[in-house]
Amino acid sequence: MAAPHQLGDFPHPVSYGYLAVGIVDEGPAAWIGTRVFGLLPHHSHHLVVPDDVHPIPEGISDHRALLAGAAETGLNILWQSPPHYGDRVAIIGGGMIGAATALLASHLPLERLEIIETNPDRRALLTSLGLTALAPEDAGDDCDIVIHTSGSEAGLARALEIAGDDGTVVEASWYGDTEPQVALGADFHARRLSIVASQVGQVPAGHRARRTRSERLGAALSALHDDRFDALITGTSGWQDLPWLMDELSSDTALATATLCHVLDYEEGS
Fold first, then answer.
1. In terms of C-beta density within 10 A (0-12 exposed, 13-18 middle, 19 or more buried), how is residue 3 classed?
2. CA–CA separation, 13 and 159 (whole Å)
3. Domains and CATH numbers, the chain
4. How confident is the model at residue 3 (pLDDT cuts 50, 70, 90)?
5. Which cofactor does it need (predicted)?
6. Using CA of residue 218, residue 174, residue 176, residue 164, what is the dihedral sign?
């Protein structure tokens, strides 16, 4: 799962990251001064070709534009198994991807939209955005579509439990090299459930003939006109803080628990 323009490899040293916003200062005349978003690593400057970046629409702040990748992933999930009018939809996992997907789905004419999250503080944040956020044990059942983004065995198990007969679970989690156990020996077959994989590397088949990846990203950027996305930015640091910050975010700390999207600002302390 190497990111675009990645240098090196894990664990370290590696030049990694894929949500970047900047201003074009050299290049074709039409691009000079343009604010752009790109899937680029954590650098202060980038040398890219025009196809590597996308203009940011007016009215969207630099920080909010960093969420274009999350919004694009959410859009891709919704294109993978599109909800229909009056559907009951649940999203398991209220992290950056789950929350972004829920904000997009909240504009659809659904009978029910619930986001299922174990962290009570995160549930409170999601509720403040006008979403219905519930603990796993309180989730409604008989769902037409369940979107799983928690990356946990427990989350996937709950997704299968609350999906209605003939329902679909869209698996949008990334498990890395772990091997989650999936309970397919219970009533999975009798209830004719489906598990569908979603991965943002390709436009889903239902749209692939009519939408390029650039057009998908453009649609995601446009969706960021929804001011509620600002709540997913949970912190900002200067680039000098990156070594300390990465240690904190990779540990079981209060900061790690509270973080959805943390911005590195290369103008701070420069």
1. middle
2. 37
3. 7-68+216-265 (3.90.180.10), 82-197 (3.40.50.720)
4. confident
5. Zn(2+)
6. negative
